[in-house]
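pipeline: protein-struct stage 2 | run 1193 | PCAT2 acyltransferase
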Amino acid sequence: QTVLQGIVLLPLRAICIAVIVLLAWLFASIATFRQPGKGSVPLKGWRRRMIQTTLSCLTRTAFFVMGFQVKVKGKIASLLEAPIFVAAPHSSFFDAIICALTGMPSIVSRAENLSTPVFGTILNSLQPVSVSRQDPDSRKNTVTEITKRALSRGQWPQVI
């Protein structure tokens, strides 16, 4: 019986996750279409709200489809209380759960991830701080960018 359930559930879950990823890509594409500043200026207004609400909801739904149910205890710090949000140990795709629960903050990601089909568009919509492994000044530039965003008084989303 469990093998039969697996044979039925696995394809259904895979199809649901594929649909969720394509919807996330669609919303990310709409939010970043003709975006002024293309990453150097924070998203504002409807663009920012669309990313925060739709991607957060879609990510939560994807994890639910995969069988994860997450309950938050306590109060999540607001952007003004904590412009930098630290997640540890930062070792797996479970970091996406934290992103979904905290309203899709900006993340620190290697620059190569931004050119990945579909996922690169979704990642770009989160306005990441990109780290280039080829640039010797990348570490210093990353710290400078995180500091700039942390001191922006809510102009940029939280950085995780």
